[in-house]
Amino acid sequence: MKVLVTGSAGFIGSALSLRLLERGDEVVGIDNLNDYYDVGLKQARLERTAAYTGYTDQRVSLEDREGIAGIFRKFQPERVVNLAAQAGVRYSLENPLAYVETNLLGFANILEGSRHNNVEHLVYASSSSVYGSNTNMPFSVHDNVDHPVSLYAASKKANELMAHTYSHLYRIPTTGLRFFTVYGPWGRPDMAYFSFTKKILAGEPIDVFNNGNHQRDFTYIDDIVEGVIRVLDRVPEPNPDWSGDAPDSATSTAPYRLYNIGNNEPVELMHYIKVLENCLGKKAEKNMLPMQPGDVQATYADVDELVRDTGYQPATTVAEGMARFVDWYREYYGV
Predict the structure, then answer these.
(1) Of 4, 135, 267, 319, which cross-links 77 as Cys (Cβ 3.0–4.6 Å)?
(2) What separation, in Å, do the N-terminal and C-terminal C-alpha atoms of the chain show?
C-alpha cells in the first residue's frame, strides 16, 4: 500500500514508518520538524527511514491547508495514519493556541485531504487523556468522556468528533486510537521517563508529582506499532446493531471505530522509577511534589475490543522495555 504518515519524524511515526517499509509498503512521511523538543533527535529518526527507497520525505505543517492538499493530490495515498500533533498536557497550559492550530485546524486539513482523494482508511491518534476526570477503571471506549482536564485532551476528543462527522457525511472509514503512555527507544525527551534518565545519570534530583501516587498504563513502542498496523489493515464498517436509543460512543452507523491501545496493566510510578534505577544501576534523588494541573491520578486501558477485532496482544513488560530504552539511551547519548 501507499501510506501517508504524518508526524513521520516523531516517536511513534518514525517507528511505524520503519515497520511499514520493512513489510514492503510505500510511505510518504510529512513532518514540520518543529522545535517542541530536540530537532536533532527527529533528524536522526528520519535518517533511519531515509535508508529505504520506498520512503518519501515531505516538509509541511498540518495547519498549512494548501500544503496538505497538495501532498494528497500529488501522492494519492491509499491509507493515512495521522500521528502529527502538538503533544503534551503540561505545555497545553502554557500555549493553548498551538493545540487549536495543529490538533484542530491541522486535523481538519487531513480530513479534507482524505475526503477529496478517496482515502480507503484514516487512522488517527487520540489519547488516554480524553478520559479526564473518569475514575472507573479500566477505561473503556464505551465510557463517557465529556470531562477533559486539559486542552490537549479536549483537542483529542474533538478529533474523534470531527472524524465521526466525516465518516457519517462522506463515508470515510476512520479509526481513532487512544494511546496510553508510550515509551521506549527513540522516545520523546519531554516524557517523564526520558527526563528521569537524564537527571539520574547526571546526579540531579527528579521531580515526582502527586508524591509518586500515580499509576500509568505504560505501553512499549513495538506493541503500539503492532497495534497500529493491525488496525490500519482492518477497514471499519458500520455497526448494524448501533441504536440512537442507547448510543455506543465507540462505534456508529458510519464506518467509524475507537480503540484503546495500551498494555492493559497499570504500573505504580514509584515501581516504574525503581525499575529505571535498576536498569541504570543508580538511585534517584526524589523531589516529591503535589499533582500538577491537568494531570490525572491513573490510566488503565481496557483493550478487549482491540484484542477481539485485531488479535492485538501487548507482549513487553516494563522491565524489558525500560532495559531496552536505557541501552538505547546510553548508546545514543554516549553516557
Answers:
(1) 4
(2) 40
CA-angle at 72, arms to 68 and 75, nearest 5°: 130
- State pLDDT tens for residues 87-140: 777 777 778 888 899 999 999 999 999 999 999 999 999 999 999 888 888 999
Q: Is 187 helix (H, G, I), strand (E, B) or coil?
A: coil
CB atoms within 10 A of CB 139: 24
**Are the C-beta atoms of residues 13 and 5 closer than 8 Å to each other?**
yes
Catalytically active residues are 152
Stronger pLDDT, 137 or 200, i.e. the higher one: 200
Least-confidence region, from 22-36, 76-90, 159-173, 319-333: 76-90
Average pLDDT, integer, range 241-245: 94
The answer to whether the beta carbons of residues 5 and 28 sit under 8 Å apart is: yes
Q: What is the DSSP string of 2-68?
A: EEEEESTTSHHHHHHHHHHHHTT-EEEEEE---SSS-HHHHHHHHHHHHTSTTEEEEE--TT-HHHH
State the DSSP string of 263-294: -S--EEHHHHHHHHHHHHTSPPPEEE-PPPTT
Stretch (H or E) spanning 174: strand 174-179
CB of 284 closer than 8 Å to CB of 189: no
Considering the chain, what percentage of its residues have pLDDT values greater than 90?
79
pLDDT at 215 over 90: no
Quote the radius of gyration of the chain (alpha carbons, Å).
Answer: 19
State the greatest distance between any 2 C-alpha atoms of the chain, in Å, as a whole number: 59
State residue 60 phi and psi, 5-degree precision: -160, 150
How much is the average pLDDT of 24-36?
95
Helix extents (H) in 171-280? 192-202, 221-232, 269-280
Cell of 153: 485532551
* Angle ∠(100,103,109) on CA atoms, nearest 5: 105
